[in-house]
Write a structure and sequence with these properties.
InterPro entries: ClpP/crotonase-like_dom_sf (IPR029045), PDZ (IPR001478), PDZ_sf (IPR036034), Peptidase_S41A (IPR004447), Tail-specific_protease (IPR005151)
Number of helices: 18
Organism: Chitinophaga agrisoli
Strand content: 15-25%
Number of strands: 21
Radius of gyration: 30 Å
Distance between the termini: 102 Å
Pfam families: PDZ_2 (PF13180), Peptidase_S41 (PF03572)
CATH superfamily of the largest domain: 2-enoyl-CoA Hydratase, Chain A, domain 1
CATH class of the largest domain: Alpha Beta
Helix content: 25-40%
Shape: globular
Family: Belongs to the peptidase S41A family.
GO molecular function, one term: serine-type peptidase activity
Number of domains: 3
């Protein structure tokens, strides 16, 4: 076709295309009545995606799309297992830093009492200590924001104090009725997961692990070496109320306790072929006698560690049945800044046991499982434990072990329900003990400073009748019905005052060193380990 002929037909071709476009546009939904037509390119898009787009563009009222999307995601995940969760962008940093084992801030521990922010502990070697901040100081302002008074919350304070490493924050403190302005250069603040490591007896060491984070293995190794240098030959590992965390941290610690190339666990899922985790190197504590403490709050990575120790007859498990979480999650970053923590596999301990408890009755029933254990008497009576094991297993030493709902301990220790009378429960709920310990510390720093460590404090400090009188007067001001305190309550109060003062002085290390003296699980662990040969 010549150029002259093409010039003749082009206007006709354009007219045909234009007419066809107008006709198709008229037929589109929304083209009638003056509405603006919107072409949706469906492609392979799902009905859910199309619905979200239509709601955003066509719905009569303006909506908070982010909230709508979160509700939709939560609704979708509610039909899966209880551990597949959506983490919104506002929560992701806090969730990640807990597992990473550090955050960026100023290095203080605080509480809020009577609308006042009180610094109850200053991290040794941290930014606040370098700036001269002291335990007992009260925070009045952060930069230009007044933080003393109604409406102040822990979240608000954290957001004001935290920030990038190297940045500065100006804090106005009240110290002995004088206002002080302090500039603090923020730094990396560790979040320790080994809460305590000390000798229970000259030969028996104790390590408390509160979670399995990115730093847990190194913390554990440091603690183990310190105890071995002090003469430790036997070990108690306390995993009570440990919700789990990184799988790698649990398997690396297990490798230090098990010999050879023993299987620690394996995982498998629909899209994840079986993967075995075995011991890979000589461990630091493969031979000494071992006890592991568990309870209904010990979950996930805690169950991996205690399950492998039980299956291989490496140590004795003491306490109560563990939580029952045998699912592996992988975290996927989302384009909105949030993340999806999705269950991708199940894990199985060496015996082939799956520890995961049933969630077939829905999330509400799953969440109420611990309460149901209490109501059914399981926390106080071993005979009330009803394992749902599908893999009968007898260890090399002839012990029958159970799965399908957690790790059942070798030695059951009941939960002491009598410890928590109504008046004591009110005291715990209102933080009376910690608030009193903080006040007592501020008024008796010289006296308390005489104790060199938690061990000396534990042996020498006495909770006198005068101190009990001061405590009940303090509690009464907070509307605690002190007239209902029984003789048994008073014994608990004496122990708790001493424990919280030790925590005020030496943080979690001091807390456990004093608390464990009368703890039934720790006492039973010592008894069992004393039976073993050196």
């Amino acid at each position: 076709m010549s150029n002259r002929k093409l010039n003749v037909f082009l206007p006709l071709l354009f007219a045909i295309v234009l007419a066809l476009g107008m006709y198709l546009g008229h037929q589109m939904p929304g083209a009638q009545g003056g509405a603006t037509a919107v072409l949706f390119n469906r492609g392979n898009r799902s009905a859910l995606e199309e619905t979200m787009d239509l709601i955003k563009v066509k719905y009569v009222d303006t909506l908070k799309v982010a909230d709508l999307q979160q509700e939709a995601i939560d609704g979708l995940l509610s039909h899966l297992d209880p551990h597949s969760v959506y983490i919104p962008p506002t929560s992701l940093a806090e969730v990640n830093e807990d597992l990473e084992g550090n955050f960026e801030g100023i290095g203080v521990e605080f509480n809020i009492t009577a609308d006042t922010v009180n610094i109850i502990s200053v991290l040794a070697g941290g930014p606040s200590e370098a700036a001269g901040v002291l335990t007992g100081d009260k925070i009045i302002k952060v930069n230009d924001s007044l933080v003393a008074g109604d409406g102040i919350t822990n979240d608000k304070i954290r957001k004001l104090l935290r920030g990038p490493k190297g940045s500065e924050v100006k804090v106005t403190l009240l110290r002995q009725q004088k206002l002080l302005n302090v500039n603090i250069k923020r730094g990396v603040i560790p979040l320790f997961s080994v809460d305590a490591a000390y000798l229970l007896t000259p030969q028996i060491g104790y390590i408390k692990i509160s979670k399995f984070s990115a730093t847990t293995y190194q913390e554990f190794m440091d603690a183990l070496r310190k105890l071995q240098r002090s003469g430790m030959q036997k070990l108690v590992i306390d995993l009570r109320q440990n919700p789990g965390g990184f799988l790698d941290a649990a398997t690396r610690i297990a490798d230090e306790l098990l010999d050879g190339d023993k299987l620690i666990l394996y995982t498998k899922g629909k899209s994840y072929p079986r993967s075995d985790y075995k011991c890979e190197k000589p461990g630091l504590f493969e031979k000494g006698a071992l006890a592991v403490l568990t309870d209904e709050g010990s979950a996930s990575a805690s169950e991996i560690l205690s399950g492998a120790i039980q299956d291989w007859d490496r140590g004795v498990i003491i306490g109560r049945r563990t939580f029952g979480k045998g699912l592996v999650q992988e975290q996927f970053d989302l384009s909105n800044g949030g993340a999806l923590r999705l269950t991708v596999a199940r894990y199985y301990i060496p015996s082939g046991r799956s520890i995961q408890k049933s969630y077939t009755n829905g999330r509400e029933a799953y969440d109420e499982d611990i309460l149901n254990r209490y109501n059914h008497g399981e926390l106080v009576n071993k005979d009330s434990i009803k394992p749902t094991d599908t893999v009968p297993y007898k260890t090399a030493k002839g012990r029958i072990v159970y799965g399908g709902g957690g790790i059942t301990p070798d030695i059951f220790i009941p939960f002491d329900t009598s410890r928590f009378s109504p008046v004591l429960t009110e005291m715990y709920t209102r933080n009376i003990f910690s608030n009193f310990a903080y006040q007592y510390y501020n008024n008796h720093q010289d006296e308390l400073g005489r104790y060199k460590n938690a061990g000396d404090f534990n042996k020498q400090f006495q909770v006198t009748n005068d101190l009990i009188s001061d405590f009940t007067s303090f509690a009464k001001k907070d509307s605690i019905p002190v007239e209902r305190i029984t003789g048994r309550d008073e014994g608990e109060i004496r122990e708790r005052i001493k424990t919280m003062l030790a925590r005020q002085l030496w943080r979690t290390e001091g807390f456990y060193e004093v608390f464990n003296v009368n703890d039934p699980l720790v006492k039973r662990a010592i008894t069992e380990l004393d039976k073993t040969k050196d």
